[in-house]
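Morning - zinc ion inputs below, output right after.
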Amino acid sequence: MKILGIETSCDETSAAVVENGVHILSNVVASQVDLHQKYGGVVPEVASRKHVELLIPTVKEALEQANCTLDDIDAVAVINRPGLIGSLIVGVAGAKAIALARGLPLVGVHHLEAHIYANFLAFPDPRFPFVCLIVSGGHSDIVYATDHGEYEMMARTRDDAAGECFDKCARVMGLDYPGGPIIDRLARAGNPGAVHFPRAKVGDGLDFSFSGLKTAVIRFVQDPENRMPLRDVAASLQEAVVDVLVENTLRAAEIKRADRIVLAGGVAANSRLRAEMEKCGSKRGIDVKYPPPDLCTDNAAMAAGAGRFRLAKFGPDDLTMDAYATEPLGQAPVDRP
Ligand code: KG4
Ligand code: ZN
């Protein structure tokens, strides 16, 4: 079964063809990063307009790279929630148009579920249950996945997401957008112990908070007394983020007696997070999995992968399927049957 995946939730226009939910035949990502770089972040209206321009050429390119036409496609999967609403609407309208014109089943996929399923494109044998840390520009969640589409939310961020913290600190450090990958690169040559930035604890629970860390880094960078190579600030910031992500995820695994941890989302591409989670996990006999970096960040193959499992278990959506700016994982939008 070949699924055409479409993803336009933020600033990447992406289309992919995935066979049987796990074999990637193509995965085209048209990045708008250059367009938003001068603003230091994504400008929603600019992103939506660019998606309108790029969607059809990106779908055509994905079909071409997969060596097929729409005649070979069996279903269309699109990320329809959560994300920038104007951007989501473009992908959803495009997916509906293709599904209607071709009489194909249509399936709306939750953005975070798609991030989780990026793992199954790399390791095509989803073994439940597992604890999943989903870290991106908009989310920092820990979920316990017990089966396809069955998630228990264990933690979330109370304020900024981990990726947002990286991006905002990077901006003050004079680095380009998105700052996460640049901080990761700079930190490789830096001293993670150069500055001890705060590691926030939210009561006894597993929730995250990164706004205090962000403020501490901004204050440190803006203080003319603090003359320190940027690579040391980057390494110290990264260490503070990674410490809490690893600690809380391990605690979640302990609570659930889980022997498997899965990483997902753009920040899961972070080299230090991957290495630390793997090191600490292996000491406790926990298997740690994460997708290759290009499948961690937003892409349409993950939408097609999740769409395959969603179709098999829950069936297709109809053409009343809509886009939603916010929606927790594992919960149907309120106005859907
Ligand atoms: O999942 P994603 O592509 O988009 C959202 O759904 O938000 O995640 C983007 C986020 C950005 O904040 C970016 O800075 C961060 O992921 N990111 C990284 C790395 N690669 C991407 N953060 C730290 N280290 C990386 N290597
Ligand atoms: Zn994402």
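Note: Residues 333-337 have pLDDT under 50 and may be disordered.

O.
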